[in-house]
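INFO batch 0412 | record 1 of 1 | parsing
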Amino acid sequence: MKRIGLALFVAVALPVAAFADSVGGCGWGSKLFAGQKGIAPQVLAVTTNGTSGNQTFGITSGTSGCQQDGVVSSAWKTAAYLDANMNKLALDMSRGGGESLSSLASLMEVSSEDSARFNTALQANFSNIFTSTEVSSVTVSQNLKSVLANDTVLAKYSSKI
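INFO prediction complete | emitting tokens
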């Protein structure tokens, strides 16, 4: 019986979780578990949305905190890039330019008009992004997102992290 339950969980919850960039960003699950952090609330929110079909209904009808004009996005490529290129990126960011910084801008879809401002802002905030020599890529990602969010022109790119 436990195997059937596990199989049902894997068949229903995991495919839904794979599409959830903000883990149940709308639907009943997001309302029931709003503000809670950790694996359990995330799994419960996604499972609630997936098993009841309310998130699909919410997106279709524009209810339950869902929007019909939302954009499906994922920042996994940026996260993977940051993780694999921390040293090169730190060096280029401290200089205000370079191949790894250009690649990051490209992954984040920074427009050519905003490219110089992007490089300058990251160079000016280098110590706020790379807070120590032992900083993790997760922390760099969070700091980078914060720096971009605080710039009126570059704020639109903070969601790409």
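INFO post-check: The chain has two domains: 2-61, 76-160.
INFO record closed
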